[in-house]
Design goal:
single chain, 212 residues, alpha/beta, Rossmann fold, 9 helices, globular, binds cytidine-5'-diphosphate
Length: 212
């Protein structure tokens, strides 16, 4: 079973995807980390994230980078949304995600374009969202716990800028697939969001079996 989880920054998609992977015993890929790794590499090599050739040159990052906590920095997230708008960067990371999705037994992937581009035939697609103020509050707390002292207003502005960039880009923009179920986590606890996600997946699977 392939489960595609998409949504904007700090919507709760990562938490939901990890929990679904655990619940259904599937491997999980946080695809945002791949774009964050490219962004991090661009910065280390002192390249220009706005230049497609520079961003492409940073796509051969060392896989050990994926475990680096620095990838979670707010600035890396912003840079990731700049490098991820380049079609050639997306192309460079495409096969790796596709292979992960199509491994025997299935997988859970979370990102922006999983249900639309990477796994358009996924068995279940979820689009996780939450209002911008809630997302900024969550991300602000997360960053503070990691010792990053940004104000709430800065985090909100960054989230809005990233939403705009991710939604407006020409290639694989952030958008809900027509056949994705929505999960609004604005007023849900983590436990409630996970329970709702599991119920949505089970409902879709039952629906498919009944329809087959
Ligand atoms: O964790 P958060 O939602 O803040 O971001 P992320 O999932 O780590 O993604 C960082 C950035 O990578 C996003 O703002 C997108 O620009 C880009 N991204 C993408 O374009 N496509 C994906 N499948 C995943 C992330």
């Amino acid at each position: 079973m392939i489960i595609a989880v998409d949504g904007p920054a700090a919507s709760g998609k990562g938490t939901v995807a990890r929990a679904l992977a655990r619940h259904f015993g599937l491997p999980h890929l946080d695809t945002g980390l791949l774009y964050r790794a490219v962004a991090h590499h661009v910065r280390r090599l002192d390249l220009d994230p706005a230049k497609e050739a520079d961003a492409v040159a940073a796509c051969d990052f060392d896989d050990r980078t994926l475990a680096d906590p620095a990838l979670r920095d707010d600035a890396v997230g912003q840079l990731a949304s700049i490098v991820s708008a380049h079609p050639l960067v997306r192309a460079a990371l495409f096969q790796r995600q596709k292979r992960f999705a199509n491994q025997p037994g299935g997988a859970v992937l979370d990102g922006r374009d999983i249900g639309t581009v990477i796994a358009p035939d996924a068995d279940v697609k979820l689009f996780v969202k939450a209002n911008a103020a809630v997302r900024a509050r969550r991300r602000h707390t997360e960053l503070a716990e990691r010792g990053q002292s940004l104000t709430y207003e800065q985090v909100l502005a960054d989230i809005r800028a990233r939403d705009a960039r991710d939604s407006a880009r020409a290639t694989a923009p952030l958008t809900q697939a027509a056949d994705a179920a929505s999960l609004d986590t604005s007023n849900l606890t983590v436990e409630a969001a996970i329970a709702r996600a599991i119920a949505l997946v089970e409902g879709r699977v039952r629906g498919r079996t009944a329809g087959a």
